[in-house]
Automatic annotation (TrEMBL):
<dbReference type="InterPro" id="IPR036388">
    <property type="entry name" value="WH-like_DNA-bd_sf"/>
</dbReference>
<dbReference type="Pfam" id="PF13601">
    <property type="entry name" value="HTH_34"/>
</dbReference>
<dbReference type="InterPro" id="IPR027395">
    <property type="entry name" value="WH_DNA-bd_dom"/>
</dbReference>
<protein>
    <submittedName>
        <fullName>Transcriptional regulator</fullName>
    </submittedName>
</protein>
<dbReference type="InterPro" id="IPR036390">
    <property type="entry name" value="WH_DNA-bd_sf"/>
</dbReference>
<feature type="domain" description="Winged helix DNA-binding">
    <location>
        <begin position="20"/>
        <end position="99"/>
    </location>
</feature>
Length: 104
């Protein structure tokens, strides 16, 4: 029995694969950065749900979180890191490969 894994599903990054995290990464991909409330509204998530999944992506090194102020109001900006962009590209490639191999 071989230990090599050739099925395309093995290329799907579990960190990104969650629907909420995939939505976050997909929304951030075309942007240099996005403010937290805009991302929250874009992916239709609650503050707590977005925070939970952002922490997972940040821990994986896929997202950078920058905090600052605009006037006296605190702001949080989110951006994909180079590692996050590479992981997203690899995820999309694996997903395409999986779909193409299924004959769809």
């Amino acid at each position: 029995m071989t230990t090599e894994q050739h099925h395309p599903r093995h290329g799907l990054d579990e960190t990104i694969h969650s629907p909420v995290r995939l939505s976050i990464v997909a929304a951030l991909a075309p942007m240099s950065q996005m403010e937290f409330p805009l991302l929250r509204d874009t992916i239709e998530a609650s503050d707590s749900l977005l925070s939970k999944h952002m922490t997972i992506l940040e821990s994986a090194g896929y997202v950078a979180v920058t905090k600052g102020h605009v006037g006296k109001r605190p702001r949080t900006w989110l951006a994909l890191t180079d590692q996050g962009r590479a992981a997203y590209t690899a995820y999309l490639d694996a997903l395409r490969h999986l779909v193409e191999d299924s004959g769809s």
